Amino acid sequence: MAYVALGSNLGDRRAHLAAARAALAATPGVELLAESAVEETPPIGPAGQPPYLNQMVALRTTLSPEALLDRLQEVERSAGRERAERWGPRTLDLDVVLIEGRSVATERLTVPHPELPRRDFWQRELAELRTAP
Description:
Blueprint: E1 2-8, H1 13-25, E2 30-35, E3 39-41, E4 52-61, H2 65-78, E5 93-99, E6 104-105, E7 110-111, H3 120-130
Antiparallel strand pairs: 1-4, 1-5, 2-4, 3-4, 6-7
């Protein structure tokens, strides 16, 4: 079971999140099991950004953590994501937050996500998913 955070603060934020959920659900080796409520949060990072819409999804996947990351980055690119500034505004941001029973520490990926303890909204969304039927 993998938990993936979705965020958007540019363009049609709700549409970006919906398109990301649909793309993940259509990915071979991925089953979308549940999604948290969508919530609006202040931006983290440079000042002057619009607020984010955030959500987390629970996935059952046969993909390796690195292959899942590759797929997430592909979905981000399809939404027009540009990696110009760390924590800058973006059409879509997808992060592997947690993978049940696994930890990962590579150059490209750290799981659990190092920001999990500092992001209250991720903790709320994760708790919501873990208590979902």
